[in-house]
């Protein structure tokens, strides 16, 4: 069957080029391959093998994203002297992923897909190894930068899954990808929790094992890509060499986007923690970053017609609306990934394994949301009201999360985290599918990766904003709450300064070493700190509610999406029986 498909591709390409001789409006860079009809499509071994390799990337990227976020509280406990920078463990990865996703789709649309996926696996493996071997929190963050770049390349798999199946089957193919992601999303926190609880490698060292497993998964995925993923050569109607295509890349746009994003997000993350917003290091990074991003926007809009943001991608109104929703989805997804585990640890005082158990409602519902949403879209084909419903569910979950306090039963935690996970998973799945459907076939990877970058940018801003809000509130609430509880429990006022200093530098487990501290004082301080953390976390959920409302309003910009569900296949996979035929030879045959 695959051989028949290849013959049809060659035949249809001949007809397509003949038509082009009478149609001067065909743009350079559009695909040479006339889209195949789904009546010619079959779920052959060749298709399934290619999908398997791409699904492995989904599994590995999910693991590489979730494990570090799950372990933030425990990494901070291992390096208490740098605990104030712990949010960078998630932020640095989201930042580098956003930078990579900003241009990786465009470059893969010009060059081959495979090399970027392999490069991402190598970066991910190195980054996870560095994080696992870290002897400081800064080294963990450095590894996360490389890990984030790998994840950014890995999320290229989302459009690649879509382009090798008919549009009518894209929701189904994406739903199966969700199952692979579920393996990491559900299993990673539990496996990591077991390592942490048992102290594999020593006290406060168990979190490192999850990083080592992530490195191994990146290596296995690299092997899977080499064995199974064989896409068709990228279209090259102009006949440019690799060097010519490199020179024609919008390097100015790539520089402006990368430099602007990096400087701006670094600036807002440093603002208020640990530097004042008016300090030179904050203003000296945030302002130049904002200026570079503004120049990048003007350059892409007016300065070039071949930038890293192809203008044709933004001609569809639904795609533009989807980008806005994806940013808010990033606020929810990455913010929850970074802070829900911290809520469980600081408010309920759970160990590594129980922290993972308490995350199960959100993890499982996220997977279920993605599966159910893909199926619903497959049959109803309209996205507006589905997304409005999902954002309403997310808003309800955020409101209920405000009720979470120390001592509440598991049910009070279960329902809001389940609702939030359901909405987050469904939104991510739907917007990814819509981005691929609304984009021109020759720019699917670019369009979807721009959407991924929008989600990462939203996530980076979210974790930064949430960190600022949380740190400001915990600094305001915690010292007073601890002091009041300790004095009431019998601590002499003369020892209060020592208690606060020990708590800040060594954690609550070191309080018994302070003179005058009794078991009653430790218990009182523990309860007071949990209440203070719970109260501080509520301000994060208030912020999320605002973004849910704004995003719901953005859904009114959607138009009908039924028109997208056709029989087209954007990019069939390579027929392995003809693998000896090189792209130039095929062109000569044509």
UniProtKB/TrEMBL annotation:
Transmembrane helix among keywords: yes
Transmembrane spans: 52-79, 85-104, 116-134, 140-161, 173-197, 209-229, 249-271, 277-299, 319-340, 360-380, 385-404, 410-437, 444-466, 539-559
Cellular localization per UniProt: Membrane
SUPFAM superfamilies (UniProt xref): MFS general substrate transporter
Keyword Transmembrane listed: yes
Pfam families xref list: TRI12
Membrane topology: Multi-pass membrane protein
Protein name: Major facilitator superfamily (MFS) profile domain-containing protein
């Amino acid at each position: 069957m695959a051989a028949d498909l290849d013959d049809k591709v060659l035949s249809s390409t001949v007809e397509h080029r003949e038509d082009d001789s009478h149609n001067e409006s065909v743009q350079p860079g559009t695909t040479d391959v006339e889209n195949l009809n789904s009546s010619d499509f079959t779920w052959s071994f060749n298709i399934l093998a290619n999908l398997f390799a791409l699904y492995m990337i989904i599994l590995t990227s999910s693991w590489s994203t979730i494990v570090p976020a799950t372990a933030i509280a425990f990494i901070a406990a291992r390096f208490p002297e740098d605990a104030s920078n712990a949010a960078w463990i998630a932020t640095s990865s989201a930042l580098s992923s956003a930078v990579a996703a900003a241009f990786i789709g465009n470059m893969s649309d010009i060059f081959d897909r495979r090399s970027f996926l392999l490069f991402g696996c190598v970066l991910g493996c190195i980054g996870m190894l560095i994080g696992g071997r870290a002897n400081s929190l800064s080294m963990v963050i450095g590894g996360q930068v490389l890990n984030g770049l790998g994840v950014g390349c890995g999320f290229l798999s989302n459009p690649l899954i879509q382009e090798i199946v008919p549009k009518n089957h894209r929701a189904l193919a994406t739903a199966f990808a969700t199952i692979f992601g579920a393996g990491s999303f559900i299993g990673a926190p539990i496996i990591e929790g077991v390592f942490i609880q048992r102290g594999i490698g020593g006290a406060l060292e168990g979190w490192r094992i999850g990083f080592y497993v992530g490195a191994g998964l990146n290596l296995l995925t690299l092997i899977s890509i080499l064995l199974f993923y064989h896409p068709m050569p990228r279209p090259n109607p102009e006949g440019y060499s690799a060097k010519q295509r490199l020179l024609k890349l919008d390097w100015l746009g790539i520089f402006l986007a990368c430099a602007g994003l990096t400087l701006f997000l670094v600036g807002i993350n440093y603002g208020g923690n640990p530097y004042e917003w008016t300090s030179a290091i904050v203003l000296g990074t945030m302002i130049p970053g904002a200026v570079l991003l503004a120049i990048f926007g003007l350059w892409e809009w007016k300065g070039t017609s071949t930038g890293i943001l192809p203008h044709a991608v933004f001609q569809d109104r639904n795609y533009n609306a989807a980008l806005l929703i994806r940013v808010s989805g990033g606020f929810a997804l990455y913010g929850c990934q970074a802070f829900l585990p911290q809520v469980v640890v600081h408010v309920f005082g759970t160990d590594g394994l129980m922290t993972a158990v308490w995350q199960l409602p959100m993890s499982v519902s996220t997977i279920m949301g993605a599966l159910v949403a893909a199926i619903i879209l497959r049959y109803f084909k309209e996205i507006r009201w589905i997304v409005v419903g999902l954002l309403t569910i997310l808003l309800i979950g955020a409101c209920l999360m405000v009720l979470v306090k120390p001592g509440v039963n598991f049910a009070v935690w279960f329902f809001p985290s389940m609702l939030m996970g359901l909405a987050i998973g469904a939104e991510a799945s739907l917007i990814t599918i819509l981005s691929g459907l609304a984009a021109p076939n020759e720019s699917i990877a670019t369009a979807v990766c721009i959407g991924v970058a929008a989600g990462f940018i939203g996530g980076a801003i979210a974790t930064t904003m949430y960190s600022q809000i949380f740190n400001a509130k915990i600094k305001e609430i915690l010292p007073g709450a601890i002091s009041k509880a300790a004095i009431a429990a019998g601590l002499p006022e003369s020892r209060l300064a020592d208690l606060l200093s020990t708590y800040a530098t060594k954690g609550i487990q070191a309080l018994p070493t302070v003179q005058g501290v009794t078991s009653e004082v430790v218990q009182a301080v523990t309860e007071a700190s949990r209440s203070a953390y719970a109260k501080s976390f509520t301000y994060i959920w208030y912020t999320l509610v605002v973004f849910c409302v704004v995003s719901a309003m953005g859904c009114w910009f959607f138009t009908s999406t039924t028109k997208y569900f056709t029989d087209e296949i954007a990019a069939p996979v390579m027929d392995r029986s003809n693998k000896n035929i090189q792209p130039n030879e095929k062109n000569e045959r044509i």
